[in-house]
Specification:
This protein has about 150 residues and is mostly helical. The protein contains 7 helices and 2 strands, in the order H-H-H-H-H-H-H-E-E. Strands 1-2 form a two-stranded antiparallel sheet. It is globular.
Amino acid sequence: MFKAVLFACALALCASGVFAGLKAGECEVCIKVVETVKASLDKKDLKSKDKIAAAIRKYCKTAKDRENRFCYYVGGTEDAATGLLNVISEPLTNGIPPEKICERTKSKDLQICELRYCKSYPHRHRHHHHHLISSPQRTGRRDLTLTLI
């Protein structure tokens, strides 16, 4: 009986995504910021949580758009209400990859991994051209129509 309950609990946790890794495109802002901060530090500085936290704060001073929002969520900005910098800096000192750090950070604050970059799709409108065509029924007016080429 106990084994059946334990199995049911483990199955429910797997279905909820607790043990699942990151999906494609998930946590992309977090991963980019952590990789950028990591690349900006020397190997010696990657051993110090304080130096990593300082590097994150320095990065966040010039961050814009989604990176700035990420900084706000983790406590890298001056007006941030939370302080999750240690959740990022401590694993970096242990050599944990940015993907794993962001996956762990997701459990602390779901908003962090909901940040995504806008994707542009220029190929969608490649074959659409707007033409002004005089309508024979309507003399003196021009209609804007969308034509496919």
